[in-house]
Design a protein that fits this description.
The protein is α/β, with parallel strands linked by helices. The chain has a single domain, classed as Vaccinia Virus protein VP39 (Rossmann fold, 3-Layer(aba) Sandwich), CATH 3.40.50. It has four helices and three strands; from the N terminus they run H-E-H-E-H-E-H. It has a three-stranded parallel beta sheet, covered by helices on one side. Helix 1 runs parallel beside helix 2.
């Protein structure tokens, strides 16, 4: 699993904003393997019109959900409360459908 640091997330958003002029046109963004949700939060903070989805295995999503429940509503991570976090187990969820 890979994690994006807060400084890397800032650099990615800066590069997106600098090199792509039509980012006001995209409406949906999915962060697969969200883990530590800096990138999902950065996208939602910088592009508030975008619907952001963070997908990961059940355990990381449970940890994120628990942290969001105890976070104060008015802090610099408030954008995370508007991100939809969902779990998906690639192995077991696909076996059930067969």
């Amino acid at each position: 699993m890979h994690y994006v640091s807060i400084s890397t997330a800032t650099k990615i958003i800066y590069l997106l904003r600098t090199h792509f002029t039509y980012f006001h046109d995209f409406l949906n963004y999915a962060d697969l393997g969200v883990g530590i949700p800096y990138l999902a939060g950065a996208v939602k903070s910088y592009f508030p019109h975008v619907n952001v989805l963070g997908v990961d295995l059940p355990d990381p999503i449970q940890i994120i959900s628990e942290k969001l429940e105890v976070m104060p509503k008015h802090n610099k991570c408030a954008a995370l409360t508007s991100v939809v976090f969902s779990s998906f187990n690639v192995i077991s969820d696909n076996i059930k459908e067969r």
